[in-house]
Every structure is written in structure tokens, then in C-alpha cells.
């Protein structure tokens, strides 16, 4: 990866975002981590990343529900590090429920965090990338950006929206050495997946083992979970010069799910 770059990774106090932040720091980028969690744990994550990789790591607690906080986070990163060269739009939440019982507030939150926050952060980061003539935007989409599952209407709608946004944005900046791509993971074992098991058990009338076997891993021909580190390695590759001609792409990492 090119040196002296700064990355902002939304939703990086846990799961996939944390793995991406660690991998970017490992590749030599200064990193702004973001997300919720226990203050002491977040500070431990931040300082250990700095110590391990010899880069600067800052924490910004911007709430992805709030456009002004998102714009302020990008501004603060630019002020502190001089640039935001890499933006990873990763924060996301899930809610599992039939459409006719889907809580309105959950629909609004999922669209705001999983879709609109990507627009707000990208809008704030693009002017600096255009000025400097280099940028990488990596959106954590999902296999659910390409195919659907029942009871996840808001999530599937938001992730399909990310696919459209990624492609449109990539075309706009194609001649400015800025690439915009989406990674589409299948099931990755993170707290987000763990948390949806009880609701899926309820919605489908299944036991925990049945949900894991017949719902989750049923979708993945390899019968294995993707790891956060595998997703992170692809994100780092997308930030390299070798990936300069990959843009507007939806890159699947789903154990064969969407090949079926
Ligand atoms: P996770 O729950 O482990 O992490 C989510 C992160 O987002 C956390 O850091 C959390 O604090 C942060 N976050 C949540 N709401 C926020 C808000 N309002 N403002 C700021 N930060 C907020 O989940 P994960 O599985 O690592 O998911 C990360 C991304 O990957 C999501 O976009 C998710 O849709 C996507 N994804 C996950 C899977 C999977 O199987 N786990 C598969 C495909 C795509």
C-alpha cells in the first residue's frame, strides 16, 4: 500500500471493521477508528494498534445516525493527519423480523447507518481526495447486496442501495485516481451474526443449532464462516496501487453463496 496514507474506518470497534483497521495499520496507514463500546476497551484497542504497528491511531465516536457528526469526523481526521486518503464505510446493524411486523424505527436506523452514513462520509471525504488526486473508498456491503433472504428487508434494501451508490460514485470519480468498491461478504462470525440468532430462532421456529446449520451455513457452499481477517486482507488489497483499475466492483467473499 502507498505510504503516508490516513484511513477512516467506520464501525471499527468490533468485528470486520476492527480487523480492517488493524490490517490497514499493519500496512502502514494512520487510522481513525470509530464505533461504540466500552471506553477502556476502545482505548486499549487504539493504543495497542499504535504500539504494534508504529502508526498513529485516533478514536472518533461519531454516531453514524447523525450526518453532522459524520462530516465532523472526516474534518477532524483531515485536520489531525492532513488528509483522509482511505475511507472504509463499514458500520452496520441488523434487525430480523417479518415486513408486516418490522418496527418503523428499526427500518429508519438501518437505512441511516447501513446506507445513508456511507453517502454522508463519502460526500465529506471526496473533496480532499479529488484535490490530492488519490483516494480509496471501500464499502462493506454484503452478499445481501446481491441476493435477498426473508425477514431482513431493511438490511437487504440498504445493502442493495450500497451496490448502486458504489457503482454511481465510482463512475463519477473514475478519472481522478479514486476507486470506489464494495466487498460483499457472506456470513462472517462477528457479534452482528451472533446477535441475530435468537430473533431468527423466533422468526423461523428453530433451535440455535438449526439456525446455524440450516439458515446460516446452509447459504455457504463451503460450510465455513468467512473470517474478519480475510475481509480485511481484501480491503487492504483494494487500497493498493495494484488495485487501481478495480472500481465500481462488487467483490464477493461468500464461500460460494452467490454462485448458487
Ligand atoms: P459488529 O456488530 O461486530 O460491528 C459493527 C460496528 O459498527 C461496531 O463497531 C459498532 O460499534 C459500529 N456501529 C453500530 N452502530 C453505529 C453507529 N450508529 N455509529 C457508529 N458506529 C456504529 O458487526 P460486523 O459483523 O463486523 O459488521 C460490520 C459490517 O459488515 C456491517 O456493515 C455489516 O452489515 C457487514 N457485514 C457483516 C457480515 C457478517 O456476517 N458479520 C456479512 C456481510 C456484511
TrEMBL record:
It is an enzyme of class 1 (oxidoreductase). InterPro entries: 3-OHbutyrate_DH (IPR011294), NAD(P)-bd_dom_sf (IPR036291), SDR (IPR050259), SDR_fam (IPR002347). Keywords: Oxidoreductase. Its EC number is 1.1.1.30. The keyword Oxidoreductase applies. One of its GO terms (molecular function) is 3-hydroxybutyrate dehydrogenase activity. Pfam families: adh_short (PF00106). The keyword Hydrolase does not apply. It comes from the Bacteria. Belongs to the short-chain dehydrogenases/reductases (SDR) family. This is 3-hydroxybutyrate dehydrogenase. It comes from Hansschlegelia beijingensis. The lineage of its organism: Bacteria, Pseudomonadati, Pseudomonadota, Alphaproteobacteria, Hyphomicrobiales.
Amino acid at each position: 500500500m502507498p505510504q503516508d496514507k490516513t484511513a477512516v474506518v467506520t464501525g471499527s470497534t468490533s468485528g470486520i471493521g476492527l480487523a480492517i483497521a488493524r490490517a490497514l495499520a499493519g500496512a502502514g496507514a494512520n487510522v481513525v477508528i470509530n464505533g461504540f463500546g466500552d471506553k477502556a476497551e476502545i482505548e486499549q484497542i487504539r493504543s495497542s494498534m499504535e504500539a504494534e504497528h508504529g502508526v498513529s491511531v485516533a478514536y472518533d465516536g461519531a454516531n453514524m445516525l447523525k450526518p453532522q457528526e459524520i462530516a465532523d469526523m472526516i474534518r477532524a481526521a483531515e485536520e489531525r493527519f492532513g488528509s483522509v486518503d482511505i475511507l472504509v464505510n463499514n458500520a452496520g446493524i441488523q434487525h430480523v423480523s417479518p415486513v408486516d411486523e418490522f418496527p418503523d424505527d428499526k427500518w429508519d436506523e438501518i437505512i441511516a447507518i447501513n446506507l445513508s452514513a456511507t453517502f454522508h462520509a463519502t460526500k465529506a471525504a471526496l473533496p480532499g481526495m479529488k484535490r490530492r488526486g488519490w483516494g480509496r473508498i471501500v464499502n462493506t456491503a454484503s452478499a445481501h447486496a446481491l441476493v435477498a433472504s426473508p425477514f431482513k428487508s431493511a438490511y437487504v434494501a440498504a445493502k442493495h442501495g450500497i451496490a448502486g451508490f458504489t457503482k454511481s460514485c465510482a463512475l463519477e470519480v473514475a478519472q481522478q485516481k479514486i476507486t470506489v468498491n464494495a466487498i460483499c461478504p457472506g456470513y462472517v462470525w462477528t457479534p452482528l451474526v451472533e446477535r441475530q440468532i435468537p430473533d431468527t430462532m423466533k422468526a423461523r421456529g428453530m433451535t440455535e443449532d438449526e439456525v446455524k446449520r440450516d439458515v446460516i451455513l446452509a447459504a455457504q457452499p463451503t460450510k465455513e464462516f468467512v473470517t474478519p481477517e480475510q475481509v480485511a486482507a481484501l480491503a487492504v488489497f483494494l487500497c493498493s496501487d495494484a488495485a487501481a483499475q478495480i472500481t465500481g466492483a462488487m467483490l464477493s467473499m461468500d464461500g460460494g453463496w452467490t454462485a448458487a
